[in-house]
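Changelog-linked ticket: S-adenosylmethionine example.
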Amino acid sequence: MARRPQPARSLAVQVLRQLEQREGFSNRHLDEALDGPRGQALERRDRALATSLVYGVLRHRGRLDALIDAVARNPSRLRGRIREVLRVATFELRELDRPPHVAISEAQAATRALDRTGRLGRATQALLSELVRRGAELDRVHEDGPPLEALERRWSIPPWLARRWLESLGPARALARARALSVPCSVDLRVDLSRTTRADVLAALEAARCEAPESCALADGRVVPQPQLLRVRAGGRLARHPLHARGLFSIQALGSQQAVRALDPRPGERALDVCAGMGTKTLQLAEHMRRRGALVATELSEARLAAHEAMCSRGQLDEAVRAGALTLTRRVADMADETAVPEVDDGPGYDRVLLDAPCTGLGNLARHPEARWTARPGDVEECAALQRRLLARCWSRVRPGGRLVYAVCSLEPEEGAAVVEAFAGARDDVTVLEQQRWTPEEHACDGFYLAALARAPA
Ligand SMILES: C[S@@+](CC[C@H](N)C(=O)[O-])C[C@H]1O[C@@H](n2cnc3c(N)ncnc32)[C@H](O)[C@@H]1O
């Protein structure tokens, strides 16, 4: 009787198929599958394997397809589930340090289940054996090809985005960015410096053998010297650490940590977090404000605002609210809308406004690799139009003499400097204090753009 494919691989194929058929973040589909009956039956080791296969295939999909197509007799017939099985096996052969026969026999078992004649199983075996022999050479050929082809076939950047990067960055930088985005992203922690120190958190993590610290090295060998930042080697247990449960550290990417730092809110101030999402930055705002002052968080999605509440409880903001030191208001609202929002717009305007705007997420391709395949060329302008509206609406909420930080996790100029500079150029009460760009190729982190704007005093 034919052997059944090993469950971690078939779960990975299932998640990858779902992602091709409906949109959504890879981590959500994967978590759903791992929490379902098939996922729960997996041992810890197999859960880790399924996770690495899903992210790996998404991150390297263009490259895997180029390898498969280079050795297949009839590439266009390898579609749907068969293509996904081959991608998983090719990823294993090229990126995971395992004996090749495991990947090959697993893929054979999976394709045999789709074709009882056995022909597909034999073709799979032949194709993958050819890749064992020629995979490294083919990768080199694709890497050394013209930049557009190298971006697509070696670094898995879709052609429309590759063309865009070649135009805006030039070949050397575009290739460096694509290469930096092809490896799993770092795990960065933000320490709540209002209640603990980096050294204490580090000691607690080491004592629990939770995570090994890594230095946050830049491409040129320098280390990012930020007191709240702790970069650790990846691992799933961090979120279960007691210090995390008490909000003494949060998991937040290096670039994303910079928006609140640039906004620099002070104790006792009134701050507005416009696109507050699940609250990562609201908590950071409270930390900088030493849990004293007024915080207002608005968000379009009701579900996200529910998660926001949980985030604030984890950060123990409720205690500051009960003690009367902090007021915390949450509102579901479309902040691009022209109409005023009660509770948000009552009062004299805000000392600090954070606009962490919705964006294409094209700086985040290492963390959300599915965006390589779901983003469309028109998304950049569509997001920029919403960002321009949000910025104009938020500016009216900054009090004279106050400050606004505009931030996006995209490095596409239309979503960053173009939005800010056109806005500042059209008004005489805006000073651009600074613009920061955090790039994968320079800072080994997600791409992130921010601008800090000061409003002229009355
Ligand atoms: C980049 S995310 C924010 C992440 C969040 N600040 C954090 O730190 O976790 C952008 C958020 O903007 C929200 N959003 C999109 N359009 C909006 C609108 N018109 N008004 C308010 N929020 C909006 C999205 O639902 C999403 O949660």
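Closing comment: Example verified and attached. The mean pLDDT is 91. The pocket of S-adenosylmethionine is lined by residues 275-278, 280-281, 298-301, 304, 334-336, 356, 358 (CB under 6 Å).
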